[in-house]
From TrEMBL:
Keyword hit for Repeat: no
Transmembrane regions listed in the UniProt entry: 7-28, 34-54, 61-79
Xref: InterPro entries: EmrE-like, UPF0060
Pfam families: UPF0060
Name listed for the protein in its UniProt record: Membrane protein
Subcellular location: Cell membrane
Membrane topology: Multi-pass membrane protein
An annotated GO cellular component: plasma membrane
Length: 110
């Protein structure tokens, strides 16, 4: 069960990071209000804090998190950007999740 909690925490972390970056992107690329930087900064600070909740070494968390980030970005692409992922997008997401599982679940010497 701890694996499912870790995976859920990874996905929450990814959504918060994507939201923070997206709000900044709206300001920079879409000429939206600079006020979007406030919730964007809050999201990015929350993202950094959420990364500290993982129970393993920071480098391993960052490496594994990258795979989850890729998978979380694909539904965002569809729901927010309005672009339906193609056949290769979920295939790449699956490879990224497999990489995350290898990093997080590999046996380690005590």
């Amino acid at each position: 069960m701890p694996e499912f909690k870790t995976l859920a925490l990874f996905f929450l972390t990814a959504l918060v990071e994507i939201a923070g970056c997206y709000l900044s992107w709206l300001w920079l690329r879409e000429d939206k209000s600079a006020w979007l930087l406030l919730p964007g900064a809050f999201c990015l600070a929350l993202f950094a804090w959420l990364l500290t909740l993982h129970p393993t070494a920071a480098g391993r968390v960052y490496a594994a998190y990258g795979g989850v980030y890729i998978c979380a970005a694909l539904p965002w692409l569809w729901a927010v950007d309005g672009i339906r992922p193609g056949l290769w997008d979920p295939a790449g997401g699956g490879v990224a999740l497999a990489s995350m599982a290898i990093i997080m679940c590999a046996p380690r010497p005590s």
